[in-house]
Amino acid sequence: HAKRLGGDRVEVFRPTLQTGTRSRAELEGDLRKALKTDGITVFYQPIVRLVDRSIAGFEVLARWNHPTRGAISPAEFIPIAEQSGIINELGLFVLDKGARQLADWQQSFRLPVPLFASVNISSLQLLRHDLINDVKSVLSRSSIAPGTLKLELTESVVMANPEYSARMLERLRALGAGLSLDDFGTGYSSLSYLQRFRFDTIKVDQSFVRPNGRSARPVILRSIIALGHDLGMQVVAEGAETESDSLELHQLGCEYAQGFLFGQPMEAAQATKLLQAEMDALRS
Ligand code: C2E
Ligand code: MG
Ligand code: MG
Ligand code: MG
Asked: Ligand nearest 93 Cα, by number?
């Protein structure tokens, strides 16, 4: 059905969610409950160095296992969490869990370069001053090396409120946290902002790594990688699925990649096994 908004504008209400048999309000309640009852967990997806495919770090990704609906994708529940304010609690949970796991791995596996963990931060978390305190306390109660906790922010977050975001990012940087610009190329970034915000990493969006028509890939991908490097940033390509994706990225000078080719998001125990195998290979 349609609802009339002033004048002759008509907005059609279409459900954007596959809510199954549960209403959005019910899902919101379910999500609140899930946070208190271990229904929300985190998975870890490896980010590798393309030169030798060694594991450089992991992205921490939230997962929701619903008691009756099964796994619900973050694309569905993150917006619910944002619109209901649950995101602050959920975000802190993921940050804390990821930092603790990272501390654990850094202690068990003395890799030549310390492992990092990269945590997604929602715009609503950035707009809330407590984020600074959250990050500060998470960093101080874990023993992780400074800079190995990276915060992933998207362009839309930063561009929506550049003055404020610039101050917040400086404060996060002052705490020693790494800053990654996620899904790069999908927003409306102004290149001058890119310089001003001084992210230390950009994550090239999957759509440039695996475009629908393959012909445009090398040109745009090459430009984005070069831009990142020229601005002194590290570049991570998202969504590498095939050997040819990986080869091409490496040839274009990209140092890091993440994607199904190197590993799906997985439970901590499975990620630990991967790290163990890598340590064994280093020793032999
Ligand atoms: P993102 O931060 O860009 O995370 C990367 C997404 O790409 C993940 O989806 C990952 O599973 C998927 N991916 C990785 N490699 C490949 C590949 O080779 N091919 C394809 N097709 N996909 C790949 P996921 O876990 O479903 O998360 C979706 C988005 O939800 C994330 O995108 C992020 O924006 C958001 N998200 C997930 N966890 C959190 C969280 O804890 N907090 C916040 N604020 N957002 C989160
Ligand atoms: Mg991300
Ligand atoms: Mg991304
Ligand atoms: Mg994404």
From this structure: 1
Which ipTM value was assigned to this complex?
Answer: 0.98
Distance CA 184, CA 34 (A): 31
> The dihedral of CA 47, 121, 15, 10: what is its sign?
negative
Ligand in closest contact with the CA of 151: 2
Q: Which of 50, 55, 177 is nearest to 109 (CA)?
A: 55
- Burial degree of 68 (CB within 10 A; 0-12, 13-18, 19+): exposed
Cβ-contact 155, 123 below 8 angstroms: no
Q: pLDDT (tens digit, 9 = 90+) per residue, 1-42?
A: 344 444 444 444 444 555 456 888 999 999 999 999 999 999
At a CB cut-off of 8 Å and minimum separation 6, what does 146 contact?
A: 139, 176
Mutate to test the pocket of ligand 1, among 97, 238, 243 (most ligand atoms within 8 A of CB): 238
Listing DSSP states for 64-129 in one string gives EEETTTEEE-HHHHHHHHHHHTTHHHHHHHHHHHHHHHHHHHHHH---SS--EEEEE--HHHHTST
